[in-house]
């Protein structure tokens, strides 16, 4: 006997689902050469959602015109509950199933279904002419396949079909009532809102009275909630729009082609039976079997089309019959055209009538956007006490929904329900009274559109305790305005500084000890209100981080490499440019004063060698400068964040200069208790090694950026 030789063209088909699409790769077919006539099919299968899948193999012996060759003697990774994985194998006993068969025009394809219920595709809304009038439909979902016998069996517990031998064929012998009931049961199982109600009995078919589906007149007791998100039958307008190919239509006679053989099982090719769904070509929207296989139940009652333009029509209110569309396995070609209409009694069933599912398109509800633009500004440090404050914010919703707000407020950053200040307010503001000095307050806005809510970030502000000065950003000329210093103060150059808060006086011994647990100062002025000294640059940085952590702020410094994150919310040392800008009085007072706050009367503003008595003195005991900042000339030198370079001014950037990238010493500014007047000038620059903690004339003040 001549060995059967089959030449296979490998085809895979991907279907558009509402969830992730299963993918078949590395598809290969091999016919064994041992005389057994076994066919081995190899493939890799992936589903991004991890769903179990149904794999269907189909065979054509006419080059792909028809996919009706029986392939039931299969084993391996085929059928239901197939999981993702590589190296899948299907073995087909071709010789046993088709003894003595030969051919060279065979094709094999696999179809994969990830069993997502229902398998729906979104049809974008549009307009078409139904032959009588212009019709507009909104976007909707429709199943690319007719409901199968296995689908129906799973949900309803029975298979009423006549052609039960058709693998994965469309269910038939279902009445319009049966289809309605199926839709509601499937919706309930999928936790969707059922569309159909029976009289006053609600949407659960278990509650409907006995005999509800036996008399055709009972169709008038069925109503549809078109806003529900559950499964339903398409309207006649939706069905025809989808059958035409929607907005991608080529205006074919049949759904997807002018050649009925390509897209439909009908009386001329069906062999007097239904066929497996999806075995003919799809239309422009990847919908199968709109033409042929089985007629499909439609929601609408049968009647004449209205002559005027319509939007989302649901059919006539009165009528005896329900519409069926699409033609079937026993129809002539004309009845399978997209435009042909027919009808049946709602209580009748036929082995030529089935249905497919549809769902109303829901515009998804998105959560409100994050609340933003708070007032007081997040991190504000200058609020007066006592004060009536109006908290304000801005918020929007992607869907344009009306929003209401909850306001949480506390002195601790971990906000919970116990800190709810106001709930369900409709304005983007809330007024309250602040009484406590030197207190950090935390607040949060939760926005709700009625269904979804968005928690804003936790914002903070602190009340004024006369310890912080707000320095508004701006432009100034940095350097020696009088050409009386050293070359390292030149050239005078323009610098732009962002706004910041700076401590009004140097960190005191009492403050340092309360944070660090010890005080290094001794012999040169001792007391809680004296500036701390004998502190290295490293000591000052560690103080900044420790204080930040104690107050729930994000530290600025990485202590492994001593780099500074200038975007962090915590405390840090001022840059050299920030220090000089504040010492000169900021944007409103950057005049040509030689010292901080004065041109010539240094003794009124500073402790230096002429008046200090050979030691430090208590902070804020001389006059402040124009920003109410004390001691920026004299008392102790102050560490700045920058590495020092004598030539840095020659290449300094204009915007927020931060000093050289590296160096061996850190910048010191302001002069000290043992300095002469020249060293107390605001332009005077110097530096020391960052590990120097052996000077009674070096301390520091801290800064915090405006967020």
What key phrases describe this protein's structure?
single chain; 707 residues; mainly beta; 4-stranded mixed sheet; 9 helices; elongated
Describe the structure.
The protein has 707 residues and is mostly beta strands. It contains nine helices and 41 strands. A hairpin with a 6-residue loop joins strand 2 and strand 3. The N and C termini lie far apart (88 Å). Residues 1-19 have low confidence and may be disordered.
Distance between the termini: 88 Å
Structural class: mainly beta
**Overall 3D shape:** elongated
Total strands: the figure is 41
Percent range for helical residues? 10-25%
- Provide a count of the helices: 9
- Tell me about the largest β-sheet: 6 strands, mixed
**If you average the pLDDT, what whole number results?**
90
* Rg over alpha carbons: 41 Å
Low-pLDDT parts are 1-19
Q: Classify the beta-strand content into a percent band.
A: 25-35%
Draw up the topology in text:
Layout: E1 8-13, E2 23-31, E3 38-46, E4 53-60, E5 74-76, E6 79-82, E7 85-93, H1 94-97, E8 106-113, E9 121-123, E10 126-129, E11 134-137, E12 140-142, H2 149-156, H3 176-189, E13 196-198, E14 222-224, E15 231-232, H4 236-244, H5 260-263, E16 295-301, E17 310-311, E18 321-325, E19 341-345, E20 353-354, E21 358-360, E22 372-375, E23 380-383, E24 387-394, E25 404-410, E26 420-425, E27 429-434, E28 440-448, E29 453-455, E30 459-463, E31 468-471, E32 474-478, E33 493-497, E34 500-503, H6 509-516, H7 537-550, E35 557-558, E36 563-564, H8 576-584, H9 602-605, E37 637-643, E38 666-669, E39 686-688, E40 698-699, E41 703-705
Parallel strand pairs: 1-8, 11-17, 16-20, 23-30, 37-40
Antiparallel strand pairs: 2-3, 3-7, 4-6, 4-8, 5-7, 9-12, 10-11, 12-21, 13-14, 15-21, 16-18, 18-19, 22-24, 24-27, 25-26, 25-28, 28-29, 28-30, 31-34, 32-33, 34-41, 35-36, 37-38, 38-39
């Amino acid at each position: 006997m001549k060995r059967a030789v089959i030449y296979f063209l490998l085809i895979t088909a991907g279907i558009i689902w509402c969830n992730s699409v299963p993918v078949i790769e590395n598809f290969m077919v091999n016919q064994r050469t041992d005389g057994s006539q076994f066919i081995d099919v190899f493939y890799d299968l992936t589903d991004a959602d991890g769903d179990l899948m149904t794999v269907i193999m189909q065979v054509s012996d006419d080059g792909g015109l028809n996919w009706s060759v029986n392939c039931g003697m299969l084993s391996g990774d085929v059928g239901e509950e197939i999981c993702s994985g590589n190296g899948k194998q299907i073995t087909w006993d071709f010789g046993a199933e088709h003894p003595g068969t030969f051919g060279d025009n065979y094709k094999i394809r696999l179809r994969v279904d990830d069993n997502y219920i229902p398998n729906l595709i979104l049809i974008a809304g549009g307009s078409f002419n139904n032959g009588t009038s212009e019709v507009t439909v909104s976007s909707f979902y429709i199943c690319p396949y007719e409901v199968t016998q296995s689908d129906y069996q799973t949900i309803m517990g029975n298979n009423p079909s006549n052609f039960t031998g058709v693998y994965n064929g469309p269910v038939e012998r279902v009445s319009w009532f049966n289809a309605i009931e199926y839709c509601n049961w499937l919706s309930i199982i999928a936790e969707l809102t059922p569309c159909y109600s029976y009289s006053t009995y609600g949407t659960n078919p278990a509650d409907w009275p006995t005999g509800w589906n036996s008399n055709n007149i009972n169709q008038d007791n069925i109503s549809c909630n078109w806003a529900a998100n559950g499964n339903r039958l398409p309207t006649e307008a939706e069905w025809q729009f989808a059958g035409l190919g929607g907005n991608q239509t080529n205006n074919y006679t049949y759904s997807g082609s002018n050649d009925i053989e390509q897209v439909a099982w009908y009386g001329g090719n069906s062999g007097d039976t239904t066929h497996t769904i999806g075995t003919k070509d799809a239309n422009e929207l990847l919908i199968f079997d709109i033409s042929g296989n089985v007629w499909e139940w439609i929601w609408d009652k049968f009647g004449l089309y209205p002559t005027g333009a319509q939007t989302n029509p649901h059919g006539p209110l009165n009528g005896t019959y329900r519409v069926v569309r699409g033609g079937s396995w026993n129809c002539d070609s004309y009845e399978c055209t997209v435009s042909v209409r027919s009808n049946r009694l709602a209580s009748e069933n036929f082995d030529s009538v089935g249905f497919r599912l549809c769902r109303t398109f829901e515009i998804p509800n998105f959560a409100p956007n994050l609340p933003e633009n708070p007032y007081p500004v997040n991190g504000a440090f200058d609020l007066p006490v006592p004060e009536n404050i109006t908290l304000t914010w801005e918020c929007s919703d992607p869907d344009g929904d009306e929003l209401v707000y909850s306001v949480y407020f506390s002195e601790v950053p971990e906000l919970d329900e116990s800190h709810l200040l106001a709930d369900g307010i409709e304005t983007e503001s809330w007024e309250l009274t602040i009484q406590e000095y030197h207190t950090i307050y935390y607040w949060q806005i939760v926005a709700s559109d009625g269904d979804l809510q968005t928690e804003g970030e936790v914002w903070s502000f602190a009340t004024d305790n006369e310890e912080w000065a707000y320095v508004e950003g701006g432009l100034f000329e940095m350097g020696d305005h009088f050409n009386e210093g050293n070359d390292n103060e030149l050239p005078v150059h323009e610098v732009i500084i962002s706004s910041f808060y700076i401590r009004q006086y140097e960190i005191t011994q009492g403050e340092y000890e309360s944070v660090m647990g010890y005080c290094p100062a001794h012999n040169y002025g001792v007391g809680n209100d004296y500036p701390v000294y004998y502190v290295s640059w490293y000591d000052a940085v560690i103080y900044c981080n420790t204080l930040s952590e104690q107050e729930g702020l994000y530290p600025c410094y990485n202590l492994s490499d001593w780099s500074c994150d200038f975007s962090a919310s915590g405390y840090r040392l001022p840059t050299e440019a920030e220090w000089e800008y504040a010492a000169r009085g900021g944007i409103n007072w950057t005049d040509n004063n030689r010292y901080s706050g004065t041109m010539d009367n240094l003794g009124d503003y500073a402790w230096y060698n002429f008046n200090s008595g050979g030691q430090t003195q208590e902070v804020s005991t001389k006059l402040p400068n124009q920003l109410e900042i004390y001691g920026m000339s004299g008392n102790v030198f102050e560490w700045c964040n920058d590495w020092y370079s004598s030539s840095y001014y020659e290449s300094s950037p204009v915007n927020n200069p931060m000093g050289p990238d590296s160096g061996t010493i850190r910048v010191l500014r302001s002069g000290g208790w043992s300095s002469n007047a020249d060293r107390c000038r605001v332009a005077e620059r110097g530096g020391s090694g960052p590990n120097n903690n052996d000077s009674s004339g070096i301390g520091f003040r801290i800064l915090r950026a405006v967020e």
